[in-house]
Amino acid sequence: MVFFNLTGRRLQPFFQKASWFFDTPVCKPEPGFATTAIQSLCREGDIAGARKLFDEMPEKNVFSFSTMIYGYSSNGFFVDSLHLFSNMQDLQIHPNSYTFVALLLASAGLSNSKIGESIHGRVIKTGLEFDAFVRTALLNSYSKCGSVADAYRLFRASDRPSLAHWNAMIAGFVLDHRFEEALLLFERLKLSGAMPNCITMMSVTQGCLGHGSLRLAAFTVTS
Fold this sequence. Notes:
Blueprint: H1 11-17, H2 31-43, H3 47-56, H4 62-74, H5 78-90, H6 97-110, H7 113-125, H8 132-144, H9 148-156, H10 163-175, H11 179-192, H12 198-211, H13 214-222
């Protein structure tokens, strides 16, 4: 059916116009379909439209809540993200890894280490500390909150860090102006056998420039 290919911005009018097909005055979208629409609206930056659709959902689950929470966080509405999580807790809906990634994005955006630590505690209680996406989000949150030492302790606790973990930690060192440590970590990455990507090289180049060496930056990028 054609309407499944519509952008999120055009989904709400569809729901309204389709009300003739249902017994209810206004069409209430199926949860999975509505969650996809909310995600699309958030990507377009239409947070008000996404929240309106979210509020109209007759049934909400961890996926719909997490999508809206992430939509808030990714668009800079960090406090709204945390407030919605509080509502989710009131309904006794348990968070998943996607929820925590969204919340950690909010703590990083607020540069609030206390919030980040609190979320980390919840992560540990739910057994998701070693989830690859959550671990990356934790590294990013601690680094952006100015707790690079905590981020590095977390990084060292990883037996086999993924490339995303390496990238987050290198970026964290650069953000904290610890350029030499960023470059040393990059050397360790190469020795580990992991293949750096463009995200790695962007951070490393910034580290080289921060270190005051244009020649080192050029050598690192080409080597």
